[in-house]
# Entry
Amino acid sequence: MTELTESAKGPDAATAPTAAANNTAEPAPARITQWGEIRHRFLANKLAVVGLVLVALLFIVAAAAPLIATHDPYAQNLANTLQEPSGDHWFGTDALGRDQFSRIVYGSRIAVIVGLASIFLACVIGCILGALSGYFGKAVDSVIMRIADIFFAFPLLIGAIVIILVMGRGVLPVIVSLAVFSWATVARLLRSSILSVREMDYVTAAKALGASTTRIITRHIMPNSIAAVMSYVSFSVGTAVVAEASLSFLGIGVSPEVPEWGNMISAGKDSLGVSDFLWVYPSSAIVLTVLGFVFVGDGLRDALDPKLR
Amino acid sequence: MTTTEKTEGAAGSAPQDAKKSAPLLDVRDLHVEFKTRDGIAKAVNGVSYSVDAGETLAVLGESGSGKSVTAQAIMGILDSPPGRVAGGEILFHGQDILKLPESERRKLRGPKMAMIFQDALSALNPVFSVGNQLGEMFRVHQGMSKKDAKAKAIELMDRVRIPAARQRVGDYPHQFSGGMRQRIMIAMAMALEPDLIIADEPTTALDVTVQAQVMDLLAELQREYNMGLILITHDLGVVADVADKIAVMYAGRIVETAPVHELYKRPAHPYTRGLLDSIPRLDHKGQELYAIKGLPPNLLRIPTGCAFNPRCPKAQDVCRADIPALLQVTEQDGTELDGRGSACHFWKDTIHG
# Structure
């Protein structure tokens, strides 16, 4: 299409396309905003839509947990323990006779809160430090990146145990420990992305056409650097959900009576091979959640890159 | 005629018949250096040239001859550090813009001077539609509304003859062909109707048929808006049709200046002659292609004397000792040739010999 009219040359050819384009009878196709374009590309990706549905489902369940749950997730019924899934208890009951379905539904709240909050925190820290590192370079860069290396090298679980020992058990310490050990990746991603984008011709070109430093950063450097971070964020929410469940599974996350997926799997591991429904359902919840975020992350990465269509 | 001006700043100031007002752009004795790990690279060593409104100056030279760096210094977009302007003046509308604070210089870029880059694909921001980027010029510099800016963008795209501009205004740079992209680049540079445009190898990335179209378009717009145009290129073929005068650069200096056709007819510098001889010619089919011997000098260690001497077939002892100034070129009878200068001790032999 483009090449066709490329051969237009000289004054006569000049008027032809001009006239065609001035013909206002032909309405321009509705191709509105940048975000509209991204949304369009995102929704064209089937896996991304599946991911979005999964993630949306998770949010709905978490928000409407009291409406969806069939029982009180804390209510014990010692006369009714370890029941197989049935009409009354869809996912069965655990060793204390608590309704598994309701516990999984309520467990989604912790997953959502911890997943989003920890990664949000990690992003704020990571983006600020990564941007500083990328823009200023030199000493600032070296210092920030060495600190990032330390956090990068430190094993998450051991670090989390230390933080939880200091702060005590609960949701907040889990969020903090996950954030503290994920910001380094965000910072590194953003930094390296900025470093390469900063050298691009369009940054020089923007400068040559009179763009201010703020404008160059906000219009040219950031939008082109952030894509790498955006998709990582979605991936890592999934990772954070797993990490949070692992902490609870190990008994250092939220307290065991709280309905939480890691807690449930931990309790279910004792009945492995006997009452498998105890760990299968919470594990599935985790798997679906992670898949959802991974698919969304994938879709975002493709949608944000205009060259990957 | 002031001979001092002749020796250094010959390119533009040549025809001083009527007392003309100051040229649009007057670069005087510009020096640019780059700090590198191995020392200071002298990229530009005393370049002087000038461009008038409506005039096209072609700056010709190999890679590393300093032609782009000079342009970056004029635009004020040198990477500094490591680069810095080490001396000289850049008079734009008679005012030395090197003395202006950065905020003032930024205001010149866009409305007063603009630049066209070699590779339009990488010089356009991939995440915004071309309409958005074209419109940005009006939104930022003239405070236009989004809607008006978009209308202006379409108008500009029409102006550079992009077919179906209205339909394509929302497309992204990668959706256009190379020639179309370069047109968009040109449209962006022209948007605010600057007085001076610097085109840094605007056609190098394009195939030959498209090259001619883009050059024609550029020349046409330049005439229409009466802009000064500095055309940086290493392609002698591109230059011939559009340029008024040529400055040939070598190792950060201007070695020859001349009105365009004069240069092709009678080069007055061995380097220019070498360049012209190395153009492949159909009527020399079967013969070996001429090439200038050796490599361009390392800017960290520019040879003493004339920088071209190690590669020059005519080099004598004086060439290795003294740097030749840009000398006024004359006919054999001594009449001065307008706008012609050569930085060669033996220019007489070269042009008349």
